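Tutorial handout. Part one gives the primary structure; part two gives the three-dimensional structure as tokens.
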Amino acid sequence: MILINLLPHREEKRKRRKTAYFAGLAAGAVAGVIAVGLWYAVLEQMKSAQMERNSFLSAEIKKLEAQIKDIANLRAEIDALKARQKAVEDLQTNRNIPVHLLNELVKQTPEGVYLSSIRQTGQVVAVTGVAQSNERVSEFLRNTLYNSEWLEKPELIEIRAGGPAAGRQPTYNFSMRISIKRPQAPTPAAAAASTPAAAAKAS
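Part two.
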């Protein structure tokens, strides 16, 4: 017995294929929407994390700027204190300069030289006096040039023979200029090196 299907089977297959096609499109669209949603969520999470990092960095930068400002203020205060200290030291040194000057002149003036006038103008001292010979004046110049911590650059202005006194050898009147210098303070390395040596000498 032969069975014949008289129903429109081709149209039925075409309808099933069309239904499957639209179902695939719908599934693809849903998958695409889900993927886009997931990617958007990941992007939002990354954006939020980056914003948190930026906020943290901004807060740390503000802290560092405040610390840098404090350091700059401290440096300015230290510089001001150093300037004040130097001004006080200069005043102390300038106050003691006349004492050092007279002491050095006494030490460096050789026998046979007598000072009659001392005048200080700034850092220059004008000295006049009487010497028994030219050699005594030369010795005085050498002493102030090489042996003094407070005197330097001696310059002879004039020397002339004075009238001989009765029964005495002739004398020489002279005038000269001397510059005042300040002894250099020892460097920290030299001071550190001298401390053990001084301790060893004391022991």
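Part three, for discussion. The helical segments are 9-108, 134-146, 188-202. The radius of gyration is 50 Å.
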